[in-house]
Design brief:
The complex is a heterodimer of chains A (about 220) and B (about 220).
Chain A: H1 2-7, H2 11-31, E1 44-50, E2 60-62, E3 67-71, E4 74-78, H3 81-96, E5 100-101, E6 110-126, H4 128-135, H5 140-145, E7 155-171, E8 186-194, H6 201-213
Parallel strand pairs in A: 2-5, 2-6, 3-6
Antiparallel strand pairs in A: 1-8, 3-4, 6-7, 7-8
Helix pairs in contact in A: 3-6
Chain B: H1 2-25, H2 29-32, E1 35-47, E2 59-71, E3 75-89, E4 93-99, E5 102-108, E6 110-126, E7 134-153, E8 156-175, E9 183-194, E10 207-218
The chains are: A alpha/beta (about 220), B mainly beta (about 220).
Chain lengths: ~220, ~220
Amino acid sequence: MNLLHHLRLGKGSLWAILLLTLGGALTACRENAINDLSPTDTPVYITNYDRSVNFGQYKTFSLPDSVIIQSNDSYAAVKNSISDRFVTNVAAALTAKGFQRVTKGQTADLGVAIIRVNNLYTGIASNPYSYYSNYWGYGGLGGLGGLGGYYYPSYYTYQVTDQYWEIQMVDLKNNPATGSGQQQVNVIYDATIRGTDITDTQSVDTAVTAIFNQSSYLQATR
Amino acid sequence: MKRITAIIALLCLTTAAWAQYRNEYESSIYDRYVTFNVSARYGLSLPMGGQKGYIDKVSPTNFALEGEWLFPKQFSIGLKTGYQYTKQRLGRQLYTYIDGNSVQDISSVQTRTLSVIPAMVSLSYYFADNAAAIRPYVQFAGGGAYVDYTNYFGPFADQKTGFKGAIAPAVGLKYYGRREQGLGAEIQAQYQNIFFNYDLLKGSSPSLMLSAGITYRFY
């Protein structure tokens, strides 16, 4: 009975149904575009460097045994199997490129830091429905649909986490002193591993290999 | 031999007379009033020129919807929309961006997508009367299109959307089987330009869409 009624609605509604179907298809296609990304295709390796710097001038580097956990504005050092793997691999990669690692406390040309960034952002947003319901005096959705006096809050908060690994290099050889006598160091190289969280040592190997392979300019003159 | 010639001559004459009779006394409603035609087609889209720099692959996901007002003098004014989607995944590559002295290298697997919803007004001229069984036509459509350019670097999206001007000249053929019949089939070749340019998508994203589907005329 219902079906017959629909069929009698005429050509206008047929168009509307077709358009709605198309609208649905639109949102479907793009949102599924990366659902089939494999774990090896997911990571994004980003490296930044200053091309005015001649990396051949550096001979030694200093690398702490632990990894820095950066969480918004606070820092802490951590040492576990993943961080150990990072330190070992980065040290090996830099040594292979002709740089020499110095022991703790000795001066070096390059300072290398491995950082685990763990940022958490809190945002605030307003709920537009709340405004309208108060404006028209309905007192939220509860007044309309009889949902038992449920009110949407006018504002709500949301949180976004941003987690990734970062390798930074600072220039310790040419560190100009600022006017106040403080020492200032320049970051000349920075690599981040995004898109995936590293949870096993094998991913560490893959990531560090990828990063140093795409950084051919990191080369000490022998 | 003489007899065959006579039969052919007679056939020609009667056909001519019949045709004239039809024109005078049985002219179709399609030729006297404004009537309607709707079409739904599925198509393949071939990227051309500037669009190849973004996605260089034939897209199998395209749909077109068209509604027309048929005017007695073999022309029509219509509205056309639809949905076009194309996607291409590239293997892991290094993309380099230089800004002054700072150089950024991004190693990622790119998934490039482009979605288009056109909203255009069309003007068509048909090379046959409105009730004919076979109706070839030429068309020019203009208007706008909603474009969604999303280039994924791994799971991260570089997205740009917008409603931009668009033009689409086309040629096609509607085939109804016999005179006056409502339901028919249609094929169309349409060249499309959307004035949307962003990053890798250049030259007003030209494409050629070959589509086939059903068409229906009514009053």
